[in-house]
Amino acid sequence: MDDERIWAMEEKLWHGGGDVYRSLIDQECVMALPAKPHVFDRDAAIEAVTQTPRWSEVRFSEQRVQRPEEGLIVIAYKAEAKRDGEGYEAYCTTTMRRRGHEDWLVVQHSQLPPLALN
């Protein structure tokens, strides 16, 4: 998967709801997020995103893409997002694995707000 498609997929997850998560998140995915219960499996992440207003804007910076082996992509970046006048920043990582030709799913995602770094 080329870099442009990687970032488009990641942005889709920030804007999308439960249907997007169901289509792009692997059954074995784990997430570490700055909201209780903090560690989520796929079903808990889908439930949480369904109950949370989606971000109207998101911007990525400090972007990195690594391909440690065939069929595996790891990205890291800073996200700045907004919704309903509320701002949010986090340093994020996402790992994607290929299931088949042009068929990629997220197997890991984490968000670390800058305040947690102090």
Global shape: globular
What percentage of residues falls in helices of 4 or more residues?
25-40%
Residue-averaged pLDDT, rounded? 94
Q: How many alpha or pi helices?
A: 3
Report low-confidence residues grouped into runs of 5 or more. Answer: none
| Cα distance spanning the termini | 35 Å
Number of DSSP strand runs: 6
Along the chain, the helix and strand elements come as HHEEHEEEE
Class computed from helices, strands and strand pairing? alpha+beta
For the biggest β-sheet, the strand order reads: 2-1-6-5-4-3
Percent of residues in beta strands: over 45%
Largest sheet: 6 strands, mixed
Describe this structure in words.
- The protein has 118 residues and is of the alpha+beta class.
- It contains three helices and six strands.
- The chain has helices spanning 3-15, 18-24, 42-51; strands at 25-32, 39-41, 57-69, 72-83, 86-100, 103-112.
- A six-stranded mixed beta sheet has the order 2-1-6-5-4-3.
- A hairpin with a 2-residue loop joins strand 5 and strand 6.
- Helix 2 (18-24) packs antiparallel against helix 3 (42-51).
